[in-house]
Design goal:
homodimer; about 400 residues; alpha/beta; Rossmann fold; 15 strands; about 40% helix; elongated
Chain lengths: ~400, ~400
């Protein structure tokens, strides 16, 4: 049986066949680093980490890239409120983000790509769009002309923002050719950070960061693009328009995967609605971050999930039962007290480590001790030896 | 049988009885962070990490403190050569030091105390010594008067530097009352870093950092002080003189433990002799840092050890045999292919994680699968689940 994945682009379940046999290029929209990550982020990134692990488990060589949006209106605003430099604020919250991901055991990302490291590639993409007349200049920056891209709307079925959509991050400029046109490069505003480039002093629009990163890291066409469902429009639609226009190659992405929302009382958990719970708020209560992981794996990734502390507690109980079961199996051996006595006697005598190690080898050769008991005894000794003899993936 | 440790203070093997029942306060001289750590450091810190683990293993609650010397002539000189700020240089090499310690599995230190965080405590100690006439002021700083401390020489049996001793870090000032008097507070020199304090602008002497830290973190009297043998004189002698004079309590430390040198062709491996090999130079050749740990545990901590790559290779072979033996024991179970097929089938269908978790619970309840095979199968699934079910200390 082949792997089947639901592709947002076609609306159907499709057999997974990567562009290059045995290899998978995968990109997932990363965070804008201006605040702590919440449980909605935890859900999305656990589910995509799972996908990357799963593809690796099935024998694919996966290259998983995530962007870090470290230039953005929200970062600049928050930095101004806190009276710090935007790049320092971004570095701080990036660190928290990476700590949170590590705690959730999200370890599959091969490259975290910071937007500010891709300014030349961003400028290059905008120049290519200008050369093809897909982009134009107005008073506050360069914009993409969605009417010039015939496939605009293919992913989402929409051409413009609708009530209830995620709010566009770009202030509307009346000079735009079409209401849905989006900014590629924002000209410098007085106190904002900027780069001096061939496009003038300014900073990139949000959508172009991702295509500059994916083109550099995965090429103009790759296998999987993931993100939360609210990014389909306008963000992912804009990515397709930019990249396919600049490269002339379609499709930019073969499989688009989107995760369902995490809801609190039927409302999406989000920064803008103010109903969010940070990952740290939960783990600081003593809940294991891996119980959160268990909770989110209990839902199918596309299914909207209702968060409640009752559900989390139930997941934590199940997770603890599972751990206990495994620990019980690992613990079938018993520490051999006679060897433990020999071992500690050697150490009691002014820490005679060479003789204590000789006891370990004596135990290994002893035919009267069962393998399970040898294992339990050696792992017990390793608490002191620190030789990292325990099971590792 | 009680734990027995060789105490440098008495020159004999003594039964270990901490000051407070069940609790151990332990301090080991940490690094001056101006360069990479070498194998001599690896030996010392592995052997003391082992001691801390061992005491914990025997049921003691250990508080293990190490200082980080981040203010020092060597740091200032090196920073000047490299044209960087001394504190930036120190932070950089502290990071490398902590990375090296983590790689060696030296995880027992509860608190790394940076000298620059203890300036008020240092000033306070010097003021107490001045009030008792144990210290005096000359042109370049405040000094300790060793003639005022009747026990001076008790630990080392010496009163001054001898040929072949570690070189004193303090430039001799002819105004000193006795040749062995050591500096407590150095007055500011033009371009050097300094703190403005009640003692005037300046920076602490080397010895006083440690007693300020230990008094703050462990109290004026504590159980174990460790370090390499070359620190006995003058460093540890000076620590005793300072702390016992300031507090009026004896002994500052109940058990003094010193590790034997790591030699290269009978010469001590040291920065000053230039015959050192960094930890990184060895691990970058592909040698596991834990093979180094094994090598140093093969020697008793007080025995001088000759380093050679032949000995390291032999240790690495033995370590690898040991790991292989343990992995073999852990691997007695076999992944159940029928459950693996069920598990992967669920995931092949657009990543059905809830059903895949149900397969795990089905396996757990299945009476026809042996515990060993259940374990092997679940640990295999956990490569994807990422629930951290493997054995952890």
């Amino acid at each position: 049986m082949a792997i089947k994945l639901h592709n947002t682009l076609t609306g159907s379940l499709e057999a997974f066949e990567p562009l290059k046999s045995g290899k998978v290029g995968m990109f997932v929209c990363g965070p804008t680093v201006y605040d702590f990550s919440h449980l909605g982020h935890a859900k999305t990134y656990i589910q995509f980490d799972f996908l990357a692990r799963y593809l690796g488990y099935m024998g694919y060589e996966v290259t998983y890239v995530q962007n870090i949006t470290d230039i953005d209106d929200k970062i600049i605003e928050r930095a101004r409120e806190k009276n710090v430099e935007p790049n320092m604020l971004a570095e701080e919250y990036e660190r928290y983000y990476l700590e949170d991901m590590a705690a959730l055991n999200n370890i599959s990302v091969d490259k975290y790509a910071r937007a500010h490291d891709y300014i030349p590639q961003i400028v290059d993409q905008v120049k290519r769009l200008l050369a093809k007349d897909m982009a134009y200049r107005i008073s506050d920056g360069y914009y993409f002309d969605i009417k010039q891209f015939e496939d605009y709307g293919r992913l989402s079925g929409r051409l413009s923002l609708e009530p209830g959509d995620a709010v566009s991050r770009i202030d509307e400029n009346q000079e735009k050719r079409n209401p849905g046109d989006f900014c590629l490069w924002k000209f410098r505003k007085e106190d904002d950070p900027y780069w001096s480039t061939e496009l003038g002093e300014g900073r990139p629009g949000w959508h172009i960061e991702d295509t500059a990163i994916t083109e550099s890291e995965l090429g103009p066409q790759y296998d999987i693009h993931g993100g939360s469902m609210d990014l389909i429009f306008p963000h992912h639609e804009a990515e397709i328009a930019q990249m396919e226009s600049a490269s002339g190659l379609k499709p930019m992405v073969k499989y688009w995967l989107h995760t369902g929302f995490l809801n609190v009382k039927t409302e999406k958990m989000s920064k803008s609605l103010g109903n969010f719970i940070t990952i740290r708020a939960v783990t600081e209560k003593g809940v294991s971050p891996l119980a959160l992981r268990y909770l989110f794996l209990l839902s199918h990734y596309r299914t909207p999930t209702n968060f409640s502390f009752e559900a989390l507690e139930a997941a934590e109980n199940a997770y603890n039962r599972l751990k206990k079961f495994v620990a019980g199996l690992l613990g079938t051996g018993v520490v051999d007290e006679s060897y433990k006595q020999k071992f500690t006697e050697k150490l009691e005598n002014d820490l005679n480590t060479p003789q204590a190690l000789a006891v370990v080898w004596g135990l290994i050769k002893d035919k009267d001790i069962s393998p399970e008991d040898k294992l339990a005894t050696i792992l017990d000794f390793d608490k002191v030896l620190g030789l990292g003899l325990e099971y590792k993936k």
